[in-house]
Design goal:
Layout (H helix, E strand, L loop, with lengths): L2 E11 L4 E9 L4 E8 L3 E8 L2 E9 L4 E5 L2 E2 L9 H13 L1 E13 L8 E12 L12 E6 H9 L6 H12 L4
Parallel strand pairs: 4-9
Antiparallel strand pairs: 1-2, 2-3, 4-5, 4-7, 5-6, 5-10, 8-9
Length: 178
């Protein structure tokens, strides 16, 4: 191990995350600290059918704006939920869509410079309409389908700024799934 943890203390926590400060020792003998955000993994879903992709738009408080992104989320009540169940549930919750097929694309980390949170990416196809079931944190969330070319243009033109959305789409495309 390149860095040894000497001490660890939680400095903040709520039902979604905790922040800890770790006193560390480097191989060189130099001590330091790391601030770490502990947060459960989440799922992100690429719902695609007939050259259309389904996105959600919601208000994102930290950046004070509404943004288009892929459906994504975690379950605070089940932090260790099976990621396929999580992806299936989040897709239905946010868009009302039910996927006949879910293909695993991969796992990525959100921001491993300060957090241990990662996300599991799924490609959802054979889509059927159902009903949404938004929770209170998703108040005002809307969903809409876009042509793939329009979606790519939204990324290029900055209408989509969510790195998880861009990364998930790029990884699926590079893997030849799109």
């Amino acid at each position: 191990m390149e860095i040894k943890t000497l001490e660890s203390r939680t400095v903040y926590s709520n039902k979604w995350m905790s922040v800890r400060e770790d006193k560390i020792l480097r191989n060189s003998g130099q001590e330091g600290i790391f601030g770490v955000v502990d947060k459960s993994d989440f799922a992100v879903i690429l719902p695609i059918q007939d050259q259309y992709i389904y996105l959600v738009e919601q208000y994102r408080y930290p950046v004070k704006g509404r943004w288009w992104e892929l459906p994504q989320g975690a379950w605070e009540s089940e932090p260790d939920a099976d990621h396929l169940s999580l992806a299936t549930g989040e897709l239905k919750e946010e868009t009302g869509l039910i996927a006949g097929r879910m293909k695993y694309v991969g796992h990525q980390y959100l921001a491993y410079g300060f957090s241990n949170q990662g996300y599991h990416i799924y490609l959802a196809t054979d889509l059927k309409a159902g009903s949404k079931n938004l929770d209170i944190e998703e108040e005002g969330l809307i969903s809409q389908k876009f042509n793939i070319k329009e979606f790519e243009s939204m990324i290029i033109n900055g209408k989509i700024k969510d790195a998880t959305t861009v990364n998930a789409y790029g990884l699926a495309k590079l893997r030849g799934l799109l």
